[in-house]
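This week, think about what follows.
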Amino acid sequence: MALTFWMLLAYRLGTYVTLPGVDPNMLQGSAQQSSGGIFGLINMFAGGAFARGSIFALGIMPYISASIVVQLLSLAVPSFQKMQKEGEEGRRKINQITRYLTIVITAVQSIGFLINLKSENPQAIVSITNPGEMSDFIFMLTATIVLTSSTMFVMWLGERITEKGIGNGISLIIMIGIIARLPFALKEEFNFKLSESGGGLVIFLIELAALFAVIMITILLVQGTRKIPVQYAKRVVGNRQYGGVRQYIPLKVNAAGVMPIIFAQALMFIPSTIAQFFPNYEAMQGVMAAFINPMSWTYNITFGLLIVIFTYFYTAISVNANQISDDMKRNGGFVPGVKPGKSTADFIDNVMSRITLPGAIFLAFVAILPSLANVLNINSQFAQFYGGTSLLILVGVVLDTLQQIESHLMMRHYDGLMKSGRIKGRNAVGAAV
């Protein structure tokens, strides 16, 4: 626990260390502007380090991007599928590939970040050598090396927390970055509500109660499962009898997690990018404006539909009904009333399709809640905690961390965190095949 605390503290302190050659006082304006778009998303995951021009400006996002790419390759490329089946050795190879890919992605994103920083805040770049092209080149080179090295250091912190700490290191780093904004958001909302046009203390308390209700609903979404009973045939080996017990396959209502929201947000940034290429076409600007404004009905309906589509897509590639059926058949298991083999795979696929629809709709509703909160006169910073990526990550990581802590306590013969029952994380539900 102490190791986890000190490593997270080191990460948070690093988010306030500015890049060499950057004047932090000149970035205060940009920090306020990094609340939307792709830069706002990166800034959220980086705990505000992006807007501050910190050495941890890119945070852990390049590693997440590399992990997603490798995960998708594992589903489509035979060589990656083979490595997945090689056990510990294959997992080590995949992790090494992910690290190398993280370095490449970080270097590319670092250059993009620095180019954007120079164009948006040229006054913030302090000359570190003689003025001229060589000075600009040296700044770009040194800053890229620092950003890449810092991201690899953050990745190392996450891996050490996973191995030596309480676990879920990468997720904890993301959560700490997100939750670091909560006190400031609460303060801003409190001050606004006490102002003449805010509505008063009662409205602020109602908002807190609404936030608590949304958190409870999100926990139901994260924890919701459909258990399919599996019966194992009896086997006699020597003088012992194996099998003959009933277990369950836990199919999650939201098997895709937060990934559909991230994919949908990435697509919603496309209209604003296209509009920049046609600044003189008023008709183009008018059409794109509806998709750029997060408060518009067009934006939210399109965003919600994309989330539903990506939920089905990501669930289909992450839950392999055929593989589950083959594993059951190989171990002598079967679903009561369903024939083993293809019939079992079709049954699991049908159940997954049915429970995914309400989960996808519910996920889309949670994703657009921040926009609804903005409409109801809630501060934009505080409104981000009413749903979307922030809330889903916070709830999921907290549940996983509590489950890890309880597991450590149980291993040391303590009673756990609760007097009755067990805390269940996102992946610790029931007995999987």
Observations:
- Confidence is low (pLDDT under 50) at residues 29-34, 428-433.
- Residues 26 and 303 are 34 Å apart (CA to CA).
